[in-house]
């Protein structure tokens, strides 16, 4: 609760433009913002704070989305680089059964991006962030797997395993102009052993990227994931354990927790609360209508002063 109060006080402090008259400066800026917010509700075809699109809204064109497979469409950021996959990377794409049925497979000439917006998150590759102080390359993928207690176990147990990764490359496969698929290539932390993942004394998940899995050195390695499968996390370096990072989960900027309902299936999001449209003509009488401005239900009195 105190965090909300301190955050509002910090916002009021940012309104101060004249330190000699700080109270009046804050009050004036606050009134200006309230007036602009109120007037912006009646503006049409003008982008305001109430109707501007989300920062990480991505693509909303259904016709353009139909050209992508597996819901992997999103909005690319920055310069597009045309690259050709090598033999090792190309062999990794052939193991997917859902792609094999396509006639000739994807074109080896692919588009490569350094940033991408999807699922309400903005992702950057490690190379793009090498000179930045911000972090947007952390990824988590929730995968459903089947486990066996032993070789003789006939009752497998299904469960979910979270894989923590660092985004290294973003490519877009093109099936000769008919279909497109966006894939993320990552450095995968070893979540199968205690050398790659553990929980600290406070219950936080910690990962270590010194030992990686699915590096692409073997044909069975799967270093790529579909873009629609990923969610964003942040990795905070642990000062006491060298090489270990604490996992901090993130939610989309424009996603609000409205209670106990499930967040799955949320398609439309908004950074601001919707306001009802108001028509000023409803409260202003028409000039063509005759109104009676004098009361007829009381007797007229004359007073002398």
From TrEMBL:
InterPro entries according to UniProt: DUF4216, DUF4218
Stretches assigned to the DUF4216 domain: 171-247
TM spans (from-to): none
Domain DUF4218, chain residue ranges per copy: 2-56
Pfam family, one: DUF4216
Identification of the protein by name: DUF4218 domain-containing protein
Organism for this UniProt entry: Gossypium arboreum
């Amino acid at each position: 609760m105190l965090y909300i109060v301190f955050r509002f006080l910090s916002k009021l402090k940012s309104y101060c433009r004249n330190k000699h008259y700080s109270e009046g400066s804050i009050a004036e800026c606050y009134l200006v913002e309230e007036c602009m917010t109120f007037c912006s509700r009646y503006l049409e075809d003008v982008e305001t704070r109430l109707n501007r699109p989300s920062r990480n809204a991505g693509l909303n064109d259904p016709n353009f989305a139909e050209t992508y497979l597996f819901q992997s469409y999103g909005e690319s950021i920055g310069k597009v680089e045309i690259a050709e996959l090598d033999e090792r990377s190309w062999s990794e794409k052939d193991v997917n059964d859902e792609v094999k049925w396509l006639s000739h497979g994807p074109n080896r000439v692919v588009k490569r991006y350094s940033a991408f917006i999807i699922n309400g998150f903005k992702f950057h590759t490690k190379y793009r962030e090498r000179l930045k102080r911000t972090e947007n390359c952390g990824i988590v993928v929730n995968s459903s797997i089947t486990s066996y207690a032993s070789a003789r176990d006939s009752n497998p147990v299904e469960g979910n395993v979270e894989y923590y990764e660092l985004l290294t490359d973003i490519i877009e496969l093109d099936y000769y102009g008919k279909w497109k698929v966006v894939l993320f290539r990552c450095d995968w932390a070893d979540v199968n052993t205690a050398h790659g993942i553990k929980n600290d004394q406070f219950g936080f998940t910690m990962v270590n990227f010194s030992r990686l899995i699915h590096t692409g050195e073997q044909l069975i390695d799967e270093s790529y994931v579909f873009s629609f499968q990923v969610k964003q996390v942040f990795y905070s370096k642990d000062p006491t354990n060298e090489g270990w990072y604490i996992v901090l989960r993130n939610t989309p900027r424009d996603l609000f927790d409205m209670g106990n309902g499930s967040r799955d299936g949320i398609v439309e999001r908004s950074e601001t609360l919707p306001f009802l449209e108001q028509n000023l003509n409803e409260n202003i009488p028409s000039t063509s209508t005759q109104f009676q401005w004098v009361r007829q239900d009381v007797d007229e009195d004359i007073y002398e002063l």
